[in-house]
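Escalated from tier 1: S-adenosylmethionine holo job.
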Amino acid sequence: MTYEQRLRNQLVKGLRRNGFLHNDTVAEALSTVRRHVFVPDRSLKAVYRDEAFITKQLDGVPVSSSSQPSIMAVMLEQLELEPGQRVLEIGAGTGYNAALLASLVKHRGRVTTVDIDPEIAARAKAHLRSEGFNNAHVVTADGGLGYADDAPYDRIIATASCWQVPPAWIDQLKDGGLLVLPLRLNGAHISLALRKHGEDLMSTSAATCGFMPLRGAFGPPFERRFDDATASADGELSATAWASLGAMLREARDVKVSFPRRRYAGNTPLYYIALQGKPVLRYFRQTGSWGMIPFLLMTSEASAIALPWQRPPRGRLPLCGSDEALDYLRKTLSRWHVEGQPDQRQLRARVRPSRVRLGPLPRRANGKYRFRRGDHLFELWFEQ
Ligand SMILES: C[S@@+](CC[C@H](N)C(=O)[O-])C[C@H]1O[C@@H](n2cnc3c(N)ncnc32)[C@H](O)[C@@H]1O
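Tier 2 regenerated the structure:
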């Protein structure tokens, strides 16, 4: 057995052991497709670790990556692929995930993968061709509009985070087909598998994930650049709020918070906090210690606190402005405990066309969280 094959087998074993991989067909694809061809500038050892790699930045902001294999494995399982199916991927990136898709639908199937960036698309095309994936077709286009020429699709997968469900994806998906997308959920991202029933989508599974934003016509609507950071929200913030955030960030102080210890893939209160609807900003800092804690909960124009995925180092979090965000965080964490620590993997969703007057951030009513984005009403709840 070659060295690279041994590394692939170890990766697959690790993904199984850590609960990210259950399906033998997906495991087979991960142990045969050669990731190092798609990510050529890293060492073999690094490429076969469960790591994401940034592959392109624009003005210091990452815009393309090879996603983390554990997230790819989870989403490939969510897709429930069968040989012979037609698949659309939005976000070709390196082409590695398209290669996995192509190997899962086999020669009878067909994968169309779209990237908005011509340089990225050209590289993906070259990699797929050199590895002999003749059933994968790379297109340069804004994938927010889908790709009508190869429609209809049995499966659609987005590998960039989405603020809404672009209507073209629903139109181009066959009835009964599955759409897997990382939905922006007020700071957090959740990978939802949604089955099409006429005009409605009903979820079949949910999983933790984190992705770069979809760009183009359906890109994130609320975004600001600071000196060394980018912050984006899922709802409109007032000009005063954005301005005060910039000022507050310069004067953050550390406070002690008892945050539960959780593994990244396991249950985290972050989703529950996000669903309560106070704006949670996704905050990306190019340099400095905050890079590890990329979420900010803002409760008012005068108060924000950084939220971690995991227990923060020494239990201390940066608090900006007044204590309001800290009090809110403590109260919400204790409600999460009282309600039995609802787990994001139990989240279920229904998405349907509606003009109901609701904002883009979740609102809780009768045990459901509702919001409207684009032409769709989203309803989410934790399945007991
Ligand atoms: C996380 S990377 C994709 C990873 C990729 N699937 C792989 O296997 O390497 C996200 C990609 O989405 C692309 N992207 C962002 N917005 C897009 C859009 N509107 N249409 C198509 N591609 C888009 C970016 O250029 C980037 O390459």
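The two ends are 46 Å apart (CA to CA).
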